Amino acid sequence: MADQLATQGRSEEDNLLLARDAAAFYLEFSESVLRQDPGHLPLAEAVAGGFTRYAYAFVGSEAERLEAQDTRAARRLRERAARLYRRAHRHAMAALEQHQPGFAQALASPSTAAGGSALQLSPDEVGVAYWAAASWGACISLSKDDPEVVADLPLAIRLAGLAWAVQPDHGNGALASLMGTFELARPGGSRRQAEAYFDRAIAAGAGRHAAVYVAKAESLALPAGDRGAYDALLHQALVAGAARRDLGNAVMSERAQWLLDTADDRF
C-alpha cells in the first residue's frame, strides 16, 4: 500500500481545483500509512512533498493575495501554512532518522557545520532530504519574528548541501533552485553564486519548469529593483507552464501571472 500511495503522490494532475480537492484525503490517508512504516522513503518523500506543495499552492499563496484586504485572515493562513510545513518536515526527518539513527543530532553537530563530519546521504535519501530542507526553509520564511525558528536556517542549508553533494540536479533542477534561494537567504550570501544555482536549475530542467523562473524573479530581480528582468523571467515562467502541463507548472504559472498583474505594487 505504501508503494502504491507513493506512486500516486507523483501523479501529474494539472487541474488546480481537482488537485486541491483530492489532496486532503490523499495526504491524511498516506500519512496514516506512513506512521506505520516511518522509514518508507518513497512514501515519506511523497507525503513531505505533498504537504509542502499544498501549503505553498493553496494556503501560503492565498495568504499573500489576502494581505491587502484582510491582514487578520492572511495571518491565520500563514500560520496554517507554517504548521503544514512543519508537518512535512517532521515526516521527512523521521524517515532520515530511521535510516540513519542520530541523523538530526549529527546534522546539528559543529563538526558537520565545519565540514569535518562523515554525515552523508545515500542516493535513495536525497528526495526525502530535499523536501525536509525545502519545507524547513519555507517554514522559516514565514516565521521571521521567531528567533528560535530562524536560528535553524543554517541546518536547513546544511541539509540541502548534503543532498547537493550526492545529486545536484535532483528534481530536474528543483534542488539547484533551492540552493539558490538558500544562498540569498544566508548571511553573506553571494548573488553571483545564487544566479549560478538558478541557471543550473534552468539547464537541468531544460527550461521546462516554471518554478525556477519565478524563484529567480522573486529572489534576484525583485530585490535588485530590476523590473525588466523581473517581467522577463515571469513571462518565461508562463511560457514554460504552457509548454509542459503538470501541477507544478500550473501552480507556478498562476503565481507568475499574479506577480505580473501586481508588479506595480512592488516597484
What does this structure look like?
The chain is about 75% helix and about 0% strand. The protein is globular and about 50 Å long. Helix 3 (about 40-65) packs antiparallel against helix 4 (about 70-100) and helix 7 (about 125-140) runs antiparallel to helix 9. It has helices at about 1-10, 15-35, 40-65, 70-100, 105, 110-115, 125-140, 145-150, 155-165, 175-185, 190-205, 210-225, 225-245, 245-260. The longest helix has 29 residues, at about 70-100. With about 270 residues, the chain is mainly alpha-helical.
**H/E element sequence:** HHHHHHHHHHHHHH
Secondary structure class reads: mainly alpha
Number of extended strands = 0
- What global shape is seen? globular
By CATH, the architecture of the largest domain is named: Alpha Horseshoe
Count of individual domains? 2
CATH superfamily of the largest domain: TRAP transporter T-component
Q: What composes the largest sheet?
A: none
What is the end-to-end distance? 50 Å
Classify the helix fraction into a percent range: over 70%
Radius of gyration (CA) equals 18 Å
CATH-assigned fold name of the largest domain: Serine Threonine Protein Phosphatase 5, Tetratricopeptide repeat
Overall residue-averaged pLDDT value? 92
Low-confidence stretches: none
Count of alpha/pi helices: 14
The quaternary organization reads as: single chain
CATH class of the largest domain: Mainly Alpha
Share in β-strands: under 5%
